[in-house]
């Protein structure tokens, strides 16, 4: 009888140990999975960013501006501007830059008779000049600086001779692999490829919320330029994971992060600076940072 009780006790102890082990593993998975950015991600509900509810204005045929201030997007206040561009309407994307020195994104737009301009890729903030690959008018202007964080140059936005714009991973063949393009700007991290989330490095740059600038290509082949304001009580900014989810919810199949933070600026010829650049620490349209390059849209 005592032997029988011992067996029951031993069996009960084993089951309890198995339960505790399973419980611990489940808790561990719940802690780890949210940080595995680039793998299984929780996508934003598209209904939350239904652009029919945005302030919308067609600036010219093929070029539409949209803006919305969210009281609760990703459980925070957000301020988002987008330009949606149908390049079939005789519009083109151009890379513009300075070899040295810096100037505002709005000045790049004005000097190039552009309909719109958005800040570009990473640059030397002290001396000017890009630290990422640039090609303009089929001429290589710059290559990725060897000291550049690899994730900040792992994607490109490029336009070929037929004015088709693509967002792809930076080709491994170097500048020789870019001969089919007329305009190229590298940046990163790459956010989406063929509708799939890209794996993101787990560092402060990606995990923390900042003002962000991004470009994307939708499934109907429209170019999307986006700014998300930040560093203000009215706009928290986005992590790159949140940025990727937002771009996908907008219908982008491919998307690329550009330089953000105080550089984040979107300008249009008819409206001026439409976002709220953060460099002056005020929630207004006056806080543009000078930059070394930009993307412009022109006819």
What is the mean pLDDT? 89
The low-confidence parts are: 1-12, 22-40
Strand order of the largest sheet: 1-2-3-15-14-16-12-13
SSE topology string: HEEEEEHEEEEEEEEHEEHEEEEE
Name the structural class. alpha+beta
What does this entry look like structurally?
The protein is an alpha+beta fold and 299 residues long. The chain folds into 2 domains: 2-35; 46-298, no CATH class. 17% of the residues lie in helices and 32% in strands. The protein has helices at residues 2-32, 105-111, 204-207, 240-249, and strands at residues 55-60, 63-70, 78-85, 92-97, 103-104, 116-119, 134-136, 139-142, 155-160, 165-169, 181-187, 190-193, 196-197, 212-218, 223-228, 252-257, 266-268, 272-273, 290-291, 293-298. The strands form 4 sheets. Strands 1-2-3-15-14-16-12-13 form an 8-stranded antiparallel beta sheet, covered by helices on one side. Strands 4-20-6-17-18 form a 5-stranded antiparallel beta sheet, with helices on one face. A 5-stranded antiparallel beta sheet has the order 8-7-11-9-10, with no helix packed on it. Strand 12 (190-193) and strand 13 (196-197) form a beta hairpin. The longest helix is centred in the first third of the chain and has 31 residues, at 2-32. It is globular and about 45 Å long. The termini are far apart. Residues 1-12 and 22-40 have low confidence and may be disordered.
């Amino acid at each position: 009888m005592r032997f029988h009780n011992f067996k029951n006790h031993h069996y009960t102890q084993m089951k309890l140990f198995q339960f505790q082990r399973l419980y611990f593993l489940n808790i561990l998975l719940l802690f780890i999975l949210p940080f595995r950015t680039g793998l299984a991600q929780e996508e934003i509900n598209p209904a939350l960013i239904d652009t029919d509810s945005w302030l919308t204005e067609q600036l010219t045929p093929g070029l539409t501006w949209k803006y919305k201030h969210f009281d609760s997007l990703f459980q925070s206040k957000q301020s988002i501007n987008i330009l949606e561009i149908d390049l079939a309407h005789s519009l083109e994307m151009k890379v513009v830059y300075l070899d040295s020195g810096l100037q505002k994104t709005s000045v790049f737009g004005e000097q190039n008779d552009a309909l719109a301009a958005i800040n570009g890729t990473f640059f030397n903030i002290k001396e000017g000049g890009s630290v990422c690959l640039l090609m303009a008018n089929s001429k290589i202007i710059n290559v990725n600086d060897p000291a550049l964080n690899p994730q900040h140059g792992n994607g490109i936005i490029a336009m070929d001779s037929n004015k088709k714009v693509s967002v792809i991973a930076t080709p491994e063949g170097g500048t020789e692999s870019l001969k089919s393009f007329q305009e190229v700007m590298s940046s990163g991290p790459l956010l989406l490829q063929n509708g799939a989330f890209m794996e993101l490095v787990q560092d402060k740059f990606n995990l923390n919320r900042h003002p962000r600038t991004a470009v994307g290509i939708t499934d109907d082949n429209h170019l999307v330029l986006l700014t998300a304001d930040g560093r203000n009580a009215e706009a928290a900014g986005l992590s790159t994971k949140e940025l990727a989810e937002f771009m996908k919810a907008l219908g982008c199949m491919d998307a690329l992060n550009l330089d953000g933070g105080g550089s984040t600026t979107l300008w249009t010829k008819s409206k001026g600076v439409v976002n709220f650049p953060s460099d002056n620490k005020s929630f207004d349209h006056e806080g543009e940072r000078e930059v070394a390059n930009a993307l412009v849209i022109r006819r």
